[in-house]
Amino acid sequence: MKNMHILPWDDSLCRKGQKTAWLRPYTLDWNNPESDSLHLEYSYNGSDWYQLNGNNGIWFPDFGSKRLHSPSIYQLINGTYLIAASDAVYESSMHLVCTTDFIHYTGAVCTGRDYEFEQLYPITQKPAPNGAVEIPMEILSELQKNYGKPEPVLLHAVEEVHITAKPGEKPSFPERVTVEYTNGMQEERKVRWNLSETDRITKDCQTCEVTGRLEETRFPNPFIYHRADPFIYKHTDGMYYFTASHTDMEHNLDGKYQYLYIILRRASTLGGLADGSGAYEEKVVYERRPIAGGTLSPHIWAPEIHYIDGKWYIYYTTTISEESSWRIRPHCLECKDRDPLTGTWEQKGPVVTEVKGDIAFTDFSLDHTHFEHKGKHYFLWAQKTNNISDIFIAQLSNPWTLCTPAVRLSHPEYAWELHGFPVDEGPGIIKHGGKIFLTFSGSGTDALYCVGLLYADENADLLDAASWKKLPFPVFQSSRATGQFGLGHNSFTKSDDDTEDLIIYHGRQEERYLVDEDYQPLYDAGRNASVGKIFWDEDGMPNFSVPSERIARREEDLTVRAVITIK
Predict the structure, then answer these.
(1) HEC string of 108-142?
(2) What confidence score (pLDDT) does residue 21 get?
């Protein structure tokens, strides 16, 4: 068993044995019916706060204007909590509701503002000056099961290295050491040793210490500018391919200039794909001019490149109309040549189904992906029914033809899927530990856009909706602490050495919302592609941490020490 050096605990996370945490209510004003519901955030130290439910509402009042203002939480003598808030519209009214767990709410009333509830309820704890109340960890744990745990994963322990060398012999250092993270995951990480320190070793030394530094999986953020719905494929020869929805910053917010091209970028390393690396080559492999007399975008969205049975395929969305941008459907390009950058791409047209009368592609359809499992090829996509976007799956008989009925896997039902628009879209697949994980994005494409998760056993019938379980909370969401907003439509890839799973996603570096005046998030070129590390929790579930968070907040935590014994 390896000896591990335990790092100082970051108090933004729950300490071992911690009994209580802080909970704080707040509201957000969208100036619409979903405005000013009860939102909750929690903290372990009273300074670092994490927004539950993807920063979406948790309790929605039914009385008065149905909108809250300045909510406060009071603990009552029997362990119940009372939430009191002004009405956001009617100044003479206030809302009261009770809860024991902040999941279920009872006794909601709307009463006069002069109601003296503090004298009438047996209050044992009033809010702190910052609006927070202290709650037992048991309550917070249940909240997190329902509304998520959007915390960073940080380095917790580093292997202590011990090396024995003979006098006059140069010690041999391990290329990797074991590390452990705060979520319990262990892995081997590369070390850059300060070999110049070995010069201090003399024949008279009995022991000596040499230091090194852990290598981080760290890329520029943003990784690639003005690219939404990013997709990276690592080919069998180790080459990386990148494509995404192309936006034109020079004509920002002007729709007719957006989403006109499919650009394929290639590099020999993942880092080589980054803007400014000078290590990639790229080419426009498909383009379409503005439609409707040059006034509207054809909406070439979400291209993905796949290598299927010895041929290259690009799936993409575009309109099937020359007059409307919104009659969009999944399409397919095929390249039979070895090199997809120099080869010829042939249009296979819209993806179709062999199943007569099936719902597939009968309405607004987009955001497709392909995956193979146990010799079968599957197609996932988003499609609107009654103006609600759902996730569907079917099997393929060839890369552009479905051969089984469309099966709906996910339908917007939670607040974090309903902000702005009822949307589930952008499916992505990653396999790990005997499970197949399906990520998708929910809500309108502003700062509350976030990532949800379904998963199935690898031996299950993937065309049976009952095989898939859906988490009730987002697994990847915006972070004010790191300045990353509106995360979504992700794909997955591997690190250069294939030891790490990575999430490729788009986000914004500004916090804006659908209700902002003159804001058009769809045609805003501010969605940029980024790369994040995936951690695997001890129960086998993926943990996406916090966007743009490093594995260590202190540089000294990346230091590795090797004790060399000369004998």
Answers:
(1) EEEEECCCCHHHHCCEEECCCCCCCEEEEHHHHHH
(2) 98
d(CA 28, CA 92): 20
Task: Output the six-digit token pair for 184.
Answer: 């319990």
Q: C-alpha distances in angstroms, 342 versus 197, 246, 283, 346, 536?
A: 49, 20, 9, 13, 38
Catalytic: which of 87, 151, 229, 334? Answer: 229
pLDDT of 147 reads 98
The order of strands in the sheet holding 559-566 is 4-6, 155-159, 176-181, 186-193, 207-214, 559-566, 161-165
Q: In whole angstroms, what is the distance from residue 65 CA to residue 90 CA? A: 7
Burial label for 355, CB within 10 Å (0-12, 13-18, 19+), is: middle
Q: For residue 86, what pLDDT is reported?
A: 97
For residue 248, the one-letter residue type is D
Nearest CA to 177 among 165, 190, 166? 190
Low-confidence ranges of the chain (pLDDT < 50): none
DSSP letter at 479 equals B
Can you give the three-state secondary structure of 267-279, one letter per residue? ECCCHHHCCCCCC
Check residue 203 and give its pLDDT. 61
Cα 9 to Cα 166: distance, rounded to the nearest angstrom: 37
Residue 206, classified by CB atoms within 10 Å of its CB into exposed (0-12), middle (13-18) or buried (19+), is exposed
For 557, half-sphere exposure in the C-beta direction (CA atoms, 13 angstrom radius) is: 18
Q: How far apart are CA 163 and CA 174, in angstroms?
A: 9
What is the reported pTM? 0.97
Q: Is 425 a catalytic residue?
A: yes
Quick one: tokens of 565?
A: 């014994």
Active site residue 229: yes
In this structure, are residues 527 and 228 in contact, taking their beta carbons and an 8 Å threshold? yes
Which position among 10, 367, 424, 425 bears the catalytic label? 425
Question: Are 475 and 453 contacting, i.e. CB atoms less than 8 angstroms apart?
Answer: yes
Give the C-alpha separation, 334 to 358, whole Å. Answer: 25
The string of pLDDT tens digits covering residues 32-75 is 777 899 999 999 999 999 999 999 999 999 999 999 999 999 99
Tokens matching residue 566: 């000369």
Q: 3-class SS at 471?
A: coil
Q: What is the 3-state secondary structure (H, E, C) of 350-376?
A: ECEECCCCCCCCCCCEEEEEEEEECCE
pLDDT at 517: 82
Residue with tokens 């805003």: 524
Give the span between the Cα atoms of 20 and 145, in whole angstroms. 17
